[in-house]
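Discussion board: Methods & Data

I've been asked by a reviewer to show the raw model output for two of the constructs in my manuscript, not just the figures. I'm not sure how much to include, so I'm pasting the format here to get opinions. Each protein appears as its amino acid sequence followed by a line of discrete structure tokens. Is this the kind of thing reviewers expect to see in a supplement, or should I convert it first? Here is construct A:
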Amino acid sequence: MAEEHNPLAESGVTIHSDSEQYEAGDDLSTSPDDSPSSPPMILYKPPTTWSLIRGVAINLLLPFINGMMLGFGELFAHEAAFRSFLCQGEGRTP
């Protein structure tokens, strides 16, 4: 079977694949901060008691306070609307 002509193979661009085995030092650059004496960067810290308390307060306490404020606002709006619109024709205020 004859090989097909692939125009992309003639381009001068070489892109390394993830499965390609690299030689030592090939395309690998080290930053100046990577010295043997520097400690490794910690990416994960286990949760502390204080962080758990803050998480509970934010996720449970704030929605409760928000719901109470919405409820009281709705009651106040209902009373204000009732007093201003419905009681005007009676000549008295409840």
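Construct B, same format:
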Amino acid sequence: MDSTPSTERSTTNTKAAGGTAHHRRVQTHCPYCALQCAITLKNAVDGVELTPRDFPTNRGGLCRKGWTAAELLDSGDRLTHPLRRVGTDEHGEARFERISWPEALDLIVAQFRGVQERHGRDAVGIFGGASLTTERAYQLGKLY
């Protein structure tokens, strides 16, 4: 863990805030591992500022990966809305169209149910990582 006190160090992710000056603070946790180190994200004019918070697991510090957590918010490859595959183009590349969240969730449910009807309930599995809270792991287990 980085021993630099959280009041002395922060990182800024450029462009993620879309250039707005909205200064909303979100207290959350690092997405990488089971420790769930506490962080605060704040929109700033030049991006998203990440600051560690004092928490039993991280005591105000972060590992190398934790310090980069805000960079994911600005990735050009990050999906920000659901897409449905609608075929391929003349080069064999997949084509997608934007759909609403309710449409996407309905499609997922229909596909899961279809696979389970054809191949049995155990034909669909869900992977959960170490960063899941006990409550989220319980909910995953109840999905099917």
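Answer (T.O., handling editor elsewhere):
This is acceptable in a supplement if you add a one-line summary per construct. For B, something like: The beta strands are 11-13, 25-29, 38-44, 47-52, 83-88, 94-98.
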